[in-house]
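Weekly modeling sync, notes
Attendees: S.R. (lead), two postdocs, one rotation student

Agenda item 3: backlog of single-chain predictions. S.R. asked that every request posted to the team notebook include the full sequence so nobody has to chase files. The rotation student volunteered to paste the first one in as an example of the format we agreed on. Action items at the bottom.

Example entry:
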Amino acid sequence: MWAPFLLAFLAAGAIWTWQQWQLQPDAPDEPKETSSPPGAQPRAPAADPAKANLVALFSTDDYPMEAIRNEEQGTTAFRVEINRSGRVSDCIVTSSSGSDALDEATCKILERRARFVPARDSAGNRVPDEYSGRIRWELPDD
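Predicted structure, as returned to the notebook:
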């Protein structure tokens, strides 16, 4: 009679533990192999770079009202820094669209929504990475 409750309790505990493990911020991987001395880790290109589908993050609902009122559109070029968890840790506009509102919206959306498959070094360890791209803002049709 108590077995279903015990199983539900154990399942809930397992799910909670798994979620907490998934939410660990930027937890370092266990090193598999290192060829450089500890503390000396210059940023080298990742053997397997970070990947994400950034186009799916943006929609016409994200168009800033200020930019719509001012009839602003253009292309914002950006560079994001990605931590070992695959989250954006910084966003820099490398070429402005000509609209502060569009440039700010680009970085705000990327920092809030972007999730990358973390980059890996040649030993398979998660490493920080960078990604550069462009977002074309076009005024929505009425």
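Discussion: group reviewed the output briefly. The chain has a mean pLDDT of 78.
Action items: rotation student to repeat for the remaining queue; S.R. to check formatting next week.
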